[in-house]
Design goal:
Blueprint: E1 5-7, E2 17-21, H1 30-39, E3 46-51, H2 56-66, E4 70-78, E5 81-88
Parallel strand pairs: 1-4, 2-3
Antiparallel strand pairs: 3-5, 4-5
Length: 90
């Protein structure tokens, strides 16, 4: 995967970060909703993604769709859930 994936506590300012809690979206609509939300971000904006598992298949799809235009930064990673900042770079 060429997109940057890092565990970090730094990231975009909170004013530029929009929350997305995937746990509240029906599984059959989840990926489409995530793609739509990421398409709506301007460069420099981020979506703080919360989920009950590490979405490795989703990350592969995001890499294929966005490539270098999306940076992935884990804010929290544990067996019971993850918090990831998806940051639009272009």
């Amino acid at each position: 995967m060429t997109a940057s994936i890092a565990d970090t506590t730094s990231g975009p300012s909170e004013a530029q970060t929009y929350p997305f809690d995937a746990r509240g979206v029906a599984k059959r609509f989840r990926h489409a909703a995530i793609f739509g939300a990421l398409d709506a971000l301007a460069p420099g904006e981020a979506m703080r993604f919360v989920n009950d598992h590490d979405p490795l298949p989703l990350l592969a799809q995001l890499e294929a769709r966005f490539g270098e235009a999306l940076r992935v930064e884990y804010r929290h990673r544990a067996p019971g859930g993850v918090v990831i900042d998806f940051i639009r770079t272009a």
